[in-house]
Design a protein that fits this description.
Shape: globular
Strand content: 25-35%
Distance between the termini: 89 Å
Number of helices: 3
Radius of gyration: 26 Å
Oligomer: single chain
Order of helices and strands: HEHEEEEEEEH
Strand order of the largest sheet: 1-2-3-4-8-7-6-5
Structural class: alpha+beta
Length: 182
């Protein structure tokens, strides 16, 4: 008899647990539906707006950002190019090769790290490029990130794949601010 009571208790507990989960799920859904009906949003449904604006040319991005940026017109091995800007803050030029490879160049107002890449890399060192100290980060196979500041602007070059140091230094030199308004 005790065995049957224990089995019955386990089954009853399981049924109650399923009922409670179902009821909780419905109440959240009902809450979301009610909020949609009233026009109110819960914090669970809120999203941050994407501040990037797609631009047809680097000149259009410069107008939006309020400053100019030098970047390569094309990169060997990358088929697609995407230019965007954040008003009065940042310009970004991205190059894509398939779904897995991305290379990007950024310039932004200020001196904070604008890379958006906060990974901890095994390899990190400073290199001198055209008299400017640049921090490069990566792995034993190559580098994925370069960051530096000059003339009140922050710069970053990032890649989803490791780049040889000399290739990254070439990109840094192309992006480097000469102090001239372009």
């Amino acid at each position: 008899m005790r065995k049957q009571i224990r089995i019955g208790s386990v089954i009853l507990t399981g049924v109650l647990a399923v009922c409670m989960m179902t009821a909780c799920g419905k109440s959240q859904t009902e809450k979301a539906d009610a909020n949609q009906d009233t026009g109110k949003e819960t914090t669970e449904n809120m999203q941050i707006a994407n501040p990037f604006v797609e631009c047809a040319t680097i000149g259009d991005a410069a107008k939006l950002a309020g400053f100019s940026m030098r970047a390569p017109e094309s990169v060997v091995g990358y088929e697609e190019k995407y230019i965007s800007a954040i008003e009065k803050e940042l310009i970004e030029v991205q190059f894509y090769h398939g779904e897995d490879a991305e290379l990007w160049f950024r310039k932004g107002v200020g001196t904070e790290d604008i890379s958006g890449d906060y990974n901890v890399y095994k390899e990190e060192k400073n290199v001198e490029v055209d008299g400017q100290t640049v921090t490069i980060k990566g792995t034993e196979n190559g580098y994925k990130l370069a960051i530096w500041n000059t003339n009140g602007y922050a710069y970053a070059i990032g890649s989803t794949t490791e780049l040889p140091e000399d290739t990254l230094v070439q990109y840094i030199s192309e992006l480097m601010d000469t102090g001239e308004q372009e």
